[in-house]
Amino acid sequence: MSSAREQSEKVLEEMKEKNPYFEKYSNKIAAVQQSSPEDFLSRLSSVDKEKKKPKFGLTEAERDYSELLKPKVPLGNQSTKDASQRKLSDIMRLELIEDKSADDIKHLWLEYHKDKDVVSAAIPVDQFNLMMKRAKHHPIFILPIPRSQGYEFIMLQFHSNTVHFTPLLNYQVHKENAPECLNITMFTECSDKGIVLMRGEYDPKVLNAQEAQCLVNQVQLYYSQDNETKLRLLDTFTKYPEKFKHMDVIEELNNLQI
Fold first, then answer.
1. Where are the beta strands (DSSP E) in 42-149?
2. Would you say 254 and 247 are in contact if contact means Cβ atoms under 8 Å apart?
3. Residue 255, Cβ neighbours under 10 Å: how many?
4. 190 touches 116 (CB < 8 A)
5. d(Cα 216, Cα 227) in Å, to the nearest integer?
6. Cα angle 210-153-242, degrees, rounded to a multiple of 5
7. Strands 118-124, 162-167: parallel, antiparallel or unpaired by DSSP?
8. In whole angstroms, how far apart are CA 85 and each of 134, 136, 200?
9. Of the candidates 61, 77, 109, 183, which lies 20 to 30 Å from 123 by C-alpha distance?
10. 72: closest CA among 179, 184, 175?
11. Residues of the chain whose pLDDT is less than 70?
């Protein structure tokens, strides 16, 4: 095994070749190298580690998505409990739609929410059933939304007939107590007519309407459609989180926007 002095001399030779400014500081560098080869190597190691760190976010080694799969308590705590117990009758009078068709109910639902700060949809019951089936296997996932300087990741968690969202950075700090930026409730009272009504309420301080809609659209594409690539990403995130690459979900979003 080579000594620290031999290793430091080798490093000096490499620096001469790679660094055009080496000659300017060569005397000072040589003094440190001669007086304490171990200290010299230690300082170089620290510099290399700093250079490899990204300007924003975590390094790949620090990013452990398996941590996201641990929470047993749904996001939002009290708000989660309240949302999961909400009924369609809390929003509209059911007797007014008893004799309506699925198309009529969908039209009334979308019109009612058109001028409100919410996102809404009427989901075919077969798509809803598929979503719930997949949610049992993949209750937690992350989705990107475009930002002016890149993308922000939002963590989602299914709980009963609701889906709860929080920025990933918030979750890393607050865990299951992280404040929600969006929650989706799905009402099954009209499932006998073939549709499930969806309503999503978002925090305008965190998301705008387009970003909330972007998240809702992605949830439907991952959980209610038969897309092989997206299913593989869900499976990787849940079963092999150490192999999950965040750039893959960004790529899927970019393909959607093309």
1. 118-124, 140-147
2. no
3. 9
4. no
5. 16
6. 150
7. unpaired
8. 21, 19, 15
9. 77
10. 175
11. 1-64, 66-85, 257-258
